[in-house]
Specification:
The chain is mainly alpha-helical. The chain has helices spanning 7-30, 38-42, 45-59, 64-88, 108-117, 133-154, and strands at 127-128, 131-132. A hairpin with a 2-residue loop joins strand 1 (127-128) and strand 2 (131-132). Helix 1 (7-30) runs antiparallel to helix 3 (45-59) and helix 4 packs antiparallel against helix 6 (133-154).
């Protein structure tokens, strides 16, 4: 079986997956009621940016610069989600933004309000088939990087 995706189709698949990922995150947050931690919010940024890059890439698919930009974006996404996964598994320490220690302690109402809003990055609240969303993001971002690299290296425009 020969698995060969054309560059234009790769952009389309990544575009559709990015929209699906963003809508899924919003659904999990707004409808199911699972509040994201700060790293979860940051992990959405590459998918939002990739929607625009893939739109450009689909129309200018012969440009290597657009594909290289997409690869760099998803390498960053892989690193960020890998860091988040490492925090979940205790490999890395949390950065100060993940914890509730940066709350203004002079206002009692603000403390109570922010305790529910700020989630800890190492506590996994929502899983998909027993896998955290940071893990899913890591695997899919890595897969996107590998497929895009293959297209960049082996595909003849």
């Amino acid at each position: 079986m020969n698995f060969n995706l054309k560059r234009k189709n790769i952009y389309l698949l990544i575009f559709l997956y990015s929209i699906f990922a963003i809508l899924s995150a919003i659904y999990i947050e707004r409808v199911l009621g699972y509040l994201p931690c700060k790293l979860c919010i940051y992990q959405r940024i590459p998918f939002l940016i990739s929607i625009f890059i893939c739109f450009l890439g689909y129309h200018y698919f012969k440009s290597d610069r657009i594909l290289i930009g997409l690869i760099i974006l998803f390498v960053l996404s892989t690193v960020l989600s890998g860091y988040h996964f490492g925090i979940e598994k205790g490999i890395f320490e949390e950065y100060a933004g993940c914890t509730n220690t940066n709350i203004d302690i002079t206002n009692k109402e603000k403390i109570l309000e922010t305790l529910d809003m700020v989630k800890n990055c190492k506590n996994v609240e929502f899983t998909l088939f027993g896998i955290s969303l940071a893990s899913v993001n890591f695997l899919t971002s890595l897969l996107i990087v590998l497929i895009s690299l293959r297209a960049l290296i082996y595909e003849k425009n």
